[in-house]
Amino acid sequence: MTSIPYYEQHAARLAGQYESLAFEDVHAGLLDALPAPGGTVLDVGAGSGRDAAWFAANGYDVVAVDPSDAMLAQARRLHPSDRIHWLSDSLPDLAKVRRLGLNFDLILLSAVWMHIPPADRERSLRKLATLLAPKGRIAISLRLGAPDTERAMHEVSLLELSALAQRFGLRMVRTSDSQDRLGRADVSWTNVVLGLPDDGLGALPLLRHLILVDEKASTYKIALLRVIARIADTASGLARYESESVVLPLGLVSLFWLRMYKPLIENQLPQMPASRLGTGPGFVTDNFHALRSVTTVELGIGSMFAGDTARHLHRSLSEISQVIRDMPAKYLRWPSSDRPIFEITRRRQMSTPQQLRIDDAFLWSFGDFRVPLEVWQALTHYNVWIEPVLVAEWVRLIEAYSGNRVPDVRMLAHRLLAWADPVRDTSFARAAVERIRAEGKPVYCVWTGARLRDEYDVDHCFPFSAWPCGDAWNLMPSARNINIQKSNRLVTQAALERASDWITAWWADAFLGQGEAQRQRFFLEAAQTLPLLVASPGTADIIDAMKMHRIRLSKDQGLRPWEPGEVGNRKRMTTSELAFPDGSAVKELPVNR
Hints:
Structural class: alpha/beta
Mean pLDDT: 90
Number of helices: 23
Strand content: 5-15%
Shape: globular
Radius of gyration: 26 Å
Helix content: 40-55%
Low-confidence stretches: 566-593
Strand order of the largest sheet: 3-2-1-4-5-7-6
Distance between the termini: 26 Å
Largest sheet: 7 strands, mixed
């Protein structure tokens, strides 16, 4: 559904027409089916923003999309709100919405379905189903009457929509009929509410089968599933979205594989039955062993290697990618089928550079790893349940393979399988605070705007206990009493919005003005962990992505919200007022995506 010229040409008049109707009148039959306030709403075809504004005013987080730039401009002007995130996007792909990594409690298509060509409707509804949270609802209004061809309309019917819904596990929760609120005698409406039990697309039952039932000749299958789950949880920013799948850099899959297996192999825990121990895992080569001195946390985005270490790392990742393609990816198959679930395309290995930086260009150079969209969605939103099951099964296999040869193997395996998150070390950010002070400049609490005194903390914006991320963008200076109040709670959307200028100023002083290498690493880390929607992000894009990720953490982890108790009087700054120590303005940094 691309932008329709009629709406571009008559946006102001149409906005006035839509605003003349109250949400409660247009959607009277939907009011008792709405999720509780605090839920997440996707408004597809948001028009003037009337409905998005109602949801925002009633405590919902809203993503409002429309293909018409002119209508979006009207909506932004009429309904400015910190709780509404406006996007230029459209069905059947909703490419930008999918990049956010969110599931929605309600998806609203008010006077939209008739604009979707019949050939695109199956694909559109499938896409909507993948974006719906468990027990979520899709509300669609069907325009009955002669289509207005000037507005690119098509005929619709309840029978057609019902048949499409059944294909994707959507059930008809309710239907109701209503007259046209604008008084058009030849137009009436049927309002449909669809519901989604479980994840709706069979991904969770499939994963349960693969983890607990599928035959395994080694730990490889479990390892690959856990690798993808960890990427979905901590590095989804590097994913590329296609219509039916998500594409990951094969080098990233291989890197996470290396990080998971390294401590297990170095501690001689068996990864296959005793009958196969003579051969050993195919990826454990001389290159793998040559990396023994490299710690797992060093194998992260932005790390630099040179000489023999760079060469061994490059070759080991290439060898791992081949093993993944030829073994677990080949034999993880759809039930009752010989068709692999995951598709891999390997690229010819390039020569190792003198200075090897682990960045997205390097990781994509190994090839592509395709994950079906419904599997990716399940791993993204249910990892809290999925990963413990994967770890428990991996431990069970190791225990079975070891027999009685390894003492306390269960406890040891659990300890070694703990993901090697970055150490909760804020010392480099604290050093930045002291350096800024030594230069005679003040440092402010990002949450209140108060100037920091001797008693201060540097802690994570998003609670480390729930989402371990030690990236520079996530480290914030604050007054100690404020940080104690915050503890392990999740900052509210409004507080994050108020703090955005102070956060941006802190980044400029602490990290972005300290040389090109540090600036590149700052943006590379953000591109890996946050849902950035642009190829060359700036600090404003990172703030926007943080807001989106905050919604995801709130939904998936159920964290308690936190609002700062005090707000200082420090003047909010515009981007044009922010500058590096040398006086240059904050600029965008290109990132290869």
